[in-house]
Amino acid sequence: MKFSIVFDNYQANEELEAHWGFACVIGRSFLFDTGSYGSALIRNMRKMSLYPEDILDIFISHPHWDHIGGLPEILDVNRRTTICVPNSCSKKYVEFLSSLSERVVISDSVESLQNKKLFADFYTTGTINKIEQSLIINNEHGLFLVVGCAHPGIVNIVRHAQHMFKKPISYLIGGFHLYNKSKDEIYKTIKALKELDVEYVTPTHCTGDLAIEMFKDEFKENFISGGVGRVIEVK
Ligand SMILES: [Fe+2]
Ligand SMILES: [Fe+2]
């Protein structure tokens, strides 16, 4: 499993542009979120030898500006994509996306998405707390969970994914939304994730500096740092 962070407000490679938001390419053809600024997203991707022309699927965690901002520019380059959106997207926004891409799937409409399966090993949690969906990859290597901003709460999302597949999370990556939390609250969150047997973590984007440091201390060698330009291969 290869995760390439192509958009992040943290910077792992000085040659890439860091702006508020998050986007990650999984493999070469799956794009999770699109950051806030499409031209920068595309420049970053090309510098990482990833190409918008190769993207087949786009997964949108939630319709906030720092996750959907790059969509129009990506679709300008490549219209042959299937976009999976949560049901928190407005009807007008879904219509707009439908006019720009080949197919738009709303993750919670049962007719279009049986058992929350997107294709092969890729699943959605479905829209949690009426705002955000997360991506789950379930294969022989483990259970991988990718989150955008974790607005429903990172612990809730992890519980939800574990409940769906009845096994612990091998790798968790994305924005954990702890930038506005106290040390005590962050500690409780980390403790809960450890109790749920989350194995490896990459907290980035809206996780916040303090929480990232605390994850580093607590997860030790199982902490993998994020930032734009980082490529994580999980075996
Ligand atoms: Fe965000
Ligand atoms: Fe958000």
Brief rundown of the structure:
29% of the residues lie in helices and 24% in strands. With 235 residues, the protein is of the alpha/beta class.
Layout of helices and strands, plus pairs?
Blueprint: E1 2-8, E2 22-26, E3 30-32, H1 38-47, E4 57-59, H2 65-68, H3 71-77, E5 82-85, H4 91-100, E6 103-106, E7 117-119, E8 122-124, E9 135-139, E10 142-147, H5 154-165, E11 171-175, H6 183-195, E12 200-204, H7 209-219, E13 231-233
Parallel strand pairs: 3-4, 4-5, 5-6, 10-11, 11-12
Antiparallel strand pairs: 1-2, 1-13, 2-3, 7-8, 8-9, 9-10
Helix pairs in contact: 6-7
The structure holds fe (ii) ion (2 copies).
Residues 22, 64, 66-67, 148-149, 175, 205-206 line the site of one fe (ii) ion.
Explained architecture:
The chain has 7 helices and 13 strands. The chain has 235 residues and is an alpha/beta fold. It has one domain: Ribonuclease Z/Hydroxyacylglutathione hydrolase-like (Metallo-beta-lactamase, Chain A), CATH 3.60.15. Strands 6-5-4-3-2-1-13 form a 7-stranded mixed sheet, with helices on one face. Strands 7-8-9-10-11-12 form a 6-stranded mixed sheet. α1 links the parallel β3 and β4. α6 runs parallel beside α7. One fe (ii) ion binds next to loops.
Keyphrases for this structure?
24% strand, binds fe (ii) ion, alpha/beta, 235 residues, six-stranded mixed sheet
- Largest sheet descriptor: 7 strands, mixed
Shape assignment: globular
Give a count of the beta strands, DSSP E runs of length 2 or more: 13
Radius of gyration: 16 Å
Ligand types: fe (ii) ion
CATH domain class = Alpha Beta
